[in-house]
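Dear support,

I submitted the protein below through the web form. The confirmation email said the job was done, but the results page showed an empty box. After a refresh the structure appeared. I'm attaching both so you can tell me whether what I see now is the final result or a partial one.
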Amino acid sequence: MNRNPVFEKEIKRNTRSIRISWIVFGCNLLLGAIALICFFGESSVRGYMTPLSYTMPMRCYMMMAYLLFFLLLLTVPVIAGASVSLEREKRTLDLLLTTHLNPWKIIIGKLEASLSIIFVIAFSAMPALALITVFGGVGLTDLLTLVLLLLVSGIFIGSIGIFCSVAFKRTTIATLMTYLIVMLFVVGTIAAVAMDYYLQTLQGQGVINPDVGAAVYLFLLNPFLTFFGMLSHQLGSGREMMLLCSLFGNYEGDWLVQNLVPVSVAVQLLLAALFLVAAGKKLNPLKK
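What the results page shows now:
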């Protein structure tokens, strides 16, 4: 099996980087702190293993999951956004392009290196997350689903970072643009739907429940809402996303809204592929 040499080089550099070690250590330290606070705080207030205390592991798991997701939002743009632009600043990109590697292998190798960091963080957090399985309610399948969705979000955000790293020459600008585009997907989609709802309310003063129509499908582009929908299926009734969409109109029989999590995963992977293709074409010195 031929390994991607760009991926191998990035892996060696990351394993020697003290920054990556501190990121993994800090992540697990925060997860351990959440577990200790939830377990000991809950048992001291309500008594150990009382009926009400069985909700504590679910809250603990939810807090840990959201912490992992927000760490992903913070770390991936930094790593992916500097992946190609840093090579350009070090004057090693031209040398890399003169090798037998085509631009697509370079792009995929950079993406794999970014995902490897997510993989390490997610699986290093498994022991802390596995504490929840002792009390039931969350199984091994749920933990693997969590890791899988983190990897999907990492692919989506990482592809944005690599595209910005190719499109902008300076690492600082590439990283900032990556954060900006990610925030447009995470915050901007919600803001756009809310603004549309507000305008519908202003235009139809006598309408009790305005309907934003197809604008709610912007939620398919939002990785945070996809993550929220996955957690709602694991810990809630699974209808939380439907209830959220129903705030903006009647979507009770809408197939896309009912299957928002799997459809949004497919849409985000498709967008990630488009970002990577655009990055590969822009990186190609022959422009073919």
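Response: this is the final, complete result; the empty box was a page-load delay. The mean pLDDT is 80.
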